[in-house]
Amino acid sequence: MLRLAIARLLLVRPRLLLIDEPFAALDAEVRARLAAFLPELCTLARPAVVVATGSVEEALYLADRVLVLPREPGPAAFSLDNLLARPREEGSVGFVTLRRELRRALEKEDRHTVPEVEAAA
C-alpha cells in the first residue's frame, strides 16, 4: 500500500502532501529505509509536506519545522525550526539538543493541559 502511495505521488506531483503516522505499521528495517527515502522523494516531487506524528525522533528526522499542537483547538503551543543538515543523524549533538528541547516543550504542554483536581475535605 505504501509503495502504491509513493508511485502515485511521483505521478501526480501534488502541491501538498498530508501524512499521518507514516511509519507506524512498519518494522524497524523498512521504517529506517523509508525514513531515509521520504526526504529524497520530497526533494524530487517538491510538495509542501505536513507530517502528523507522535514520535519526537520521527518529527526531527523528517521536518524542517516542528509544531507542538495543543490538546484544545488553537494556535501551536511551540514551534521549533530544525536547521540540521540532511541526512540527519539521531546521535549527533545537534539532534540530541533539539530532541531535548522538543521533549521539554511537550512536557510543558502536558502540564498545562492536566485539569486541576480539588481535594474533597
Short précis:
This protein has one domain: Rossmann fold (3-Layer(aba) Sandwich). It is 47% helix and 15% strand. The chain contains four helices and four strands.
SSE topology:
Layout: H1 2-12, E1 16-20, H2 28-45, E2 48-52, H3 56-62, E3 65-68, E4 78-81, H4 93-113
Parallel strand pairs: 1-2
Antiparallel strand pairs: 3-4
Helix pairs in contact: 3-4
Describe this structure in words.
The protein is of the alpha+beta class and 121 residues long. 47% of the residues lie in helices and 15% in strands. It contains 4 helices and 4 strands. Mean pLDDT is 82; it is low at 114-121.
The CATH architecture comes to 3-Layer(aba) Sandwich
- Tell me the CATH superfamily: P-loop containing nucleotide triphosphate hydrolases
CATH topology heading? Rossmann fold
Order of helices and strands: HEHEHEEH
* Largest β sheet strand count, sense and barrel closure: 2 strands, parallel
Sequence stretches where pLDDT stays below 50 over 5 or more residues:
114-121
- How would you write the strand order of the largest sheet? 1-2
Mean pLDDT over the residues = 82
> In total, how many beta strands?
4
Sheet/helix structural class: alpha+beta
Reading off the top of the CATH hierarchy, the class is best stated as Alpha Beta
Shape: globular
Task: Tell me the number of structural domains.
Answer: 1
N- and C-termini, Cα separation: 57 Å
Alpha-carbon Rg, integer = 17 Å
